[in-house]
Specification:
The chain has 217 residues and is of the alpha+beta class. The protein has 7 helices and 5 strands; from the N terminus they run αββααααββαβα. The relative contact order is 0.12.
Amino acid sequence: MIENFRYRSKWEDFEKAVDTARKLVDSGQAFWMVGFLDEFNMCLAEGVSIEEGMSKIITDEVIYLMRWYLAHKFYGLKTDENEIRSVLLAGAEFNMNGDELDSSVKMVQNKLELLIDAFDTERLTVRFKMKQEAVNLKLDEFKYNICKTSIPGGESTDFAVVNMVCKKKLCGVEQGIERLLLANAQGESVTFICDEEDIDLWINELTEMKQKLKGER
């Protein structure tokens, strides 16, 4: 469960960060990671970068608040002002008088409403629920190294060594001993090699899989 809101940015800056994230997602330059490589996060496509100030707001507030919203929806909890107030009051950094608390609660509520309007939260809720309830293993880690092998006669070829780790539960907590235990939990691992033609076949299979998924919806 998310314990604290990170609500420090000005409203205008938050609007700009949300608009930046929305445009990236809509254009395929960023992707929501939902129960795949992370419990919930955003991944940028190769070569895409975000200005540092916007990146911090997206990481500290947009993703943080979206994760909190989806977790509350999954557990059947409310995300209204009363719930936000209780979360703020429980926060370790809480040190506000009544008027400051009221202002902070309203600001967080407004930011949440902006996020719900900006992104397909219904689809994200369905994805989050499915991944949380699934008993199947989920991809937790993906790494590869490019290697070269030489063949007698002077020829050589490049290939990739790919390693994938799958776990039943991904690390979705921010900090503390639970995160450490989840991060170090033993998962099922597979390592294999593939060359350029193998990757072309892999891409083809993934494209076909995606087309079939789209056809089922």
